[in-house]
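ligand=NAI
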Amino acid sequence: MAEPIRVVVTGAAGQIAYSLLYQLAKGDVFGDQQPLSLHLLDIEPMMGVLNGVVMELQDCALPLLREVIPTADPAVGFKDVDAAFLVGAMPRKEGMERKDLLAANVKIFKAQGQALDQHAKKTVKVLVVGNPANTNSLICSKYAPSIPPANFSAMTRLDQNRAQTQIANRLGVPVNNVSKITIWGNHSSTQFPDVANATVVTASGETKSVKDAINDQAWLNGDFISTVQKRGAAVIAARKLSSAMSAAKAAADHMKDWWNGTPAESWVSMAVFSDGSYNTPVGVMYSFPVRCSKGQWEIVQGLTIDEFAREKLDVTSKELIEEREEALAVCQD
Ligand code: NAI
């Protein structure tokens, strides 16, 4: 069996981590032949709670889990890690826009970037989940200059999974029958869930474009988009807490595809540094359709962007530029 890898989860005493840790420890992400050491980082006041999580992980009796290291010290948490799930942050409360969180959370990601820079492997793959995820990831990378920018990403997979389910439910097919949905831009209410290139295997076994199968452009341009954009807020309104089980599943999906690769014919959505593809602003962390192979991602090129899509891509670009400016100002304080 392979040597154990080191995986850190921050916010390890929180809600998302509670669902994520079990998936990691049982091999859902790195494979059922890959042993691992889990580094659990949270803040000092949460160490008691974290100890309970450690006990539960031990009591799961999982053969791949070789070591659990709970800590409030980033130097220990990030030491030699191969993969980092940066979940820890202040969660959005009911009525709060993600922007309100920016000032508080961006400082956490500056400090964690510095700690990654000093202590993690240079090959570490970093997935930022804590909101505002795209901009936090950008800041984290900026303060970790010794790690390649391509090793940083932010999560829009939950939005992709939500969009995929909306389409599958509408067509009465299993969720896996729907592919090539793209989330463009920011993980916020300006994101653009795009089905222009999406396909579905219908109940009769035929492969069709989602547009043709749904045959209701008004719904696709209206309720579908707004349902996906506002799904996070709807879950908060219902649960009085932000999405956790589904966010953990999406984080596992994101890292699994990055680590192991995506199917050649399909793609997934990941927020990564824009290189200007599709006339998006260079240097913001923008969600694109990507294909992954051998641990590297590549933006899918050549998709048609019509006028409707162009407008949506530009709106979310503008928000990301604004967030970047605000975040850089906060970091200089
Ligand atoms: P939670 O409040 O249950 O847990 C957050 C944990 O982070 C707490 O245990 C807290 O002590 C810890 N924490 C705070 N500062 C820290 C630091 N400096 N270092 C290490 N740990 C720290 O929150 P939950 O529900 O687990 O959500 C975490 C984040 O994920 C929030 O920012 C939330 O908005 C975001 N989120 C992102 C989604 C996405 O699709 N990108 C979806 C859902 C949530």
